[in-house]
Amino acid sequence: MMGYGYGLMGGFGMIIPLILIVLVIYAVVKLMQNNNGNYDMRNGKNDAIDILNQRYAKGEISEEEYMQKKKMLRD
């Protein structure tokens, strides 16, 4: 009889959507962690210091400005 409201799959019909929801949430959390993991503050600061070093080496900024900005980035 199909009068119980469970459909053709019985009680398993409720488990499969729950599993799918859990998998989607897990995938979203992992994607968020990967996106946040790729941007590391230390890497961002190192990139900024590298750019600063290049600008100083090219003569675009003075030694005084270089030292001030380098100190600011390291703090």
Question: What does this entry look like structurally?
Answer:
With 75 residues, the protein is mainly alpha-helical. The protein is built from 3 helices and no strands. It has helices spanning 12-38, 41-58, 63-74. Helix 2 (41-58) packs antiparallel against helix 3 (63-74). The protein starts with 11 loop residues before the first helix and ends with a helix. Residues 37-42 have low confidence and may be disordered.
Write a concise synopsis of the structure shown.
The protein has 75 residues and is mostly helical. It is built from 3 helices and no strands. The model is unreliable at 37-42 (pLDDT under 50).
Q: Helix share of residues?
A: over 70%
Mean pLDDT across all amino acids = 77
Question: What is the approximate shape?
Answer: rod-shaped
Rounded to the nearest angstrom, the radius of gyration is: 27 Å
Encode the helix/strand succession as letters: HHH
Number of helices: 3
Structural class: mainly alpha
| Number of DSSP-assigned strands | 0
Low-confidence stretches: 37-42
Describe the biggest sheet? none
Strand content: under 5%
Tell me the span between the first and last alpha carbons: 72 Å
